Amino acid sequence: MTAEEKTLILGALFHDIGKFEQRGNMYSKDKHQTLSAAFVNRLFSDEKLANIVKNHHEKDLRESIQKGELKNTDKILAEIICEADNIASMERKPDQRITQQQPLESIFSKVDYDKELTLNKIYQPISEISYAKYKFVQDKLNSDELNESYKKWWSSFEEEIKNVNIDETETLIYVLKKYLWCVPSSSWRTRSDVSLFEHSRITAAIAISMFKYLMEKKGKIEKIESVDIQNRKDEKYLLMLADITGIQKYIYNISHKGASKALKGRSFYLQQMLDNIAYWILDKQFELPITNLIYSSGGKFYIFAPNTEDIRNKIKATQKELEQKFLKEYDGDLGVIIGSIPLSGEDLEYDKSKKVHLISEKWDELNKIVEQNKKHKFSNNWDYKLLTPTGIDGDVERCAATGKELASKFKIQTTNSTTVQLVEDSPNKFKKYQVDGKIFYQVLDNEGKETNDFISAEQFLSQQIGTKLKRKNNTIAIYDIIAGYSVMDLNSFEILDTDEFGNKYNAQVVRHFLVNDVELKNLKGNTEKGFKFYGGDWRIPDTYEDVIKNGVGIQRLGVLRLDVDNLGLIFKDGLGTKATFGRVVQLSSMLDFFFYHYLNKLKHFSWDPKEGLSEDYKKFDYKVRKLIEIVYSGGDDVFIVGHWSL
């Protein structure tokens, strides 16, 4: 990342931080851009960056240019942030009736798929994003209480961010997410349903993409002119969608033995695979910051990128390379389909002639491109050898969980093995074999004796991850090298039981994440820090048989599957003419929050057969966490197993 790119990203991320400070200090008379500049200078000790932030509005920008206070590179960077800010805030409409600061309106109150439905406005209080402390949306908020909440929230933010290593850009982004997710992007003379965090990261994504596009077109930063920046007709941007196919069949292709652990492990691994592939593309292929990862959930991710020849070529090369790796690792059971669509500034703004926002149509068009590409799966790696017979000669041992061929029984009998544990201190033991380069395991019983069951390395990994997730205080490290759990030899991740991180593998790029915890100050070590949400962060303490016996009523297990109907149509039509880029991203983020995080709140509930559920864990004898578990929750669906009566 060049110095100009870093300045651009930080300037875009913090350009409106003064709005937060205004709400935290109601007596301040300064403009938000002045407060933003002062805050940036305090945090980064960078007057150049502060001056760019101070001039992110058109009027201030032109005055500073005329006075000679903005010149050369600084002028260009300020103009890019100004334009990106304008494009990213297209949902705002002035409302002169509003004379007080307004809370963030819930984006769900804007979803109007049923055109005859009357939607009441609901508001998000200032709240922790952690499910244990989350404050649910309300239909009315007291202005005095809101002002007091802002004051405390700003004080907490200021105290936390000043202790962050300013060279850890991603850590700064996660601190912004922790606090700005519930702060409206604008609330004076306007109503806002897009958070200040989403607005800021969208501004950063647009700004860096515009800069890279113009740099390829012009060659040098000095050649970029104001007219180039303000041109919204050129297709400067590109929205890419990557969709992993075959997920449902892959996850549930498991026998009953170890199914719970394996299902949890597989679903978790797939989400990490998705994130790791996205990080690999951002870091190694596109050289873009994580602000440009618009959404990653439910087996797909979207990346906002510059529409350059370099990026377009890399998309083709990336599709081909990933196809090769999926064929090698999963024999075609899993695959990845990539599609992209060019975007202009006009596509991201409000079309006054049609009185609509065009982004929802583009979003839908991109999904249709990917659906069409699914009909040509692995076409970039077609080889007639794929039609030749494959398999292992002779009497074959198969995976007891998935039925896949492992090795000939003869070779297994003549190959040495080593005894391993599923995880440290685990009673589950296996014999590890490697035959013809393939690793697999023989299951041992409780007495350490051999059974007739063998499982693949992938199944062993799934059970291992599922077991580790049961333990408390997990953190996740993602490396740009192969260490821990490899993701198709692109990069890797590791589940740790400590907040300390020493980079024992000497990886160049490391991300260290808390799981369902946002107290970033607890993470120690010289690395980028963040937090991840994971749906179903507990497991029932007993077997399913014990759950059946310990419940009440009929002794049966129940299975609950839920998903969002017509999610694609909701994104296409649900926001109607109100569908700006900011709103689409906000809706995606809040759906992600609900399925990946908020549903974990169930584990703090108690239950009574007559009275039903209570958020008071001590109120009733039956504890929900002992009667059900979330096997999978993410994207737009959830899978729960538990006692039938509950």
Structure report:
The protein is α+β, with helices and mostly antiparallel strands. The chain folds into 5 domains: 3-103 and 141-230, no CATH class; 232-381, Reverse transcriptase/Diguanylate cyclase domain (Alpha-Beta Plaits); 396-465, no CATH class; 471-532, no CATH class; 535-645, Alpha-Beta Plaits, CATH 3.30.70. It is built from 20 helices and 25 strands. The strands form 8 sheets. It has a 5-stranded mixed sheet with strand order 16-17-15-18-19. A 4-stranded antiparallel sheet has the order 4-5-3-6, with helices on both faces. A 4-stranded antiparallel sheet has the order 11-12-13-14. A hairpin with a 5-residue loop joins strand 13 (438-444) and strand 14 (450-456). Helix 1 packs antiparallel against helix 9, helix 2 packs across helix 7 and helix 8 (169-180) runs antiparallel to helix 9. The protein starts with a helix and ends with a strand.
